[in-house]
Amino acid sequence: MLLIDTNEPISDIVPLIGQSVELGIQPLNVNGYADYKWAKYDGTEKQVERKTWPELLANVEHVEEQLQRHLTKNPDIELVFMLEGMVIQSEFGTTTLN
Length: 98
Fold this sequence. Notes:
With 98 residues, the protein is of the alpha/beta class. 29% of the residues lie in helices and 38% in strands. A hairpin with a 5-residue loop joins strand 3 and strand 4.
């Protein structure tokens, strides 16, 4: 079962994978976990923290602190950082591609 935090965009996720994977919605972030969590075939757990470029560029320190909290609170759970989207350098600094 794939557990998804209540703050994630459920309407985008369910049509993509909800047909083939059992989904559960829980307040993962409140309990110290990343945005997505599941048990792997060997019984260990994996979690994924998803961020967009605007979130990262707005406050890199906050993202780093959040990742550190996940690693500290759940050191035995593998953590993956997923950065969604792309950015390119432009004459104005950084442009986010959607």
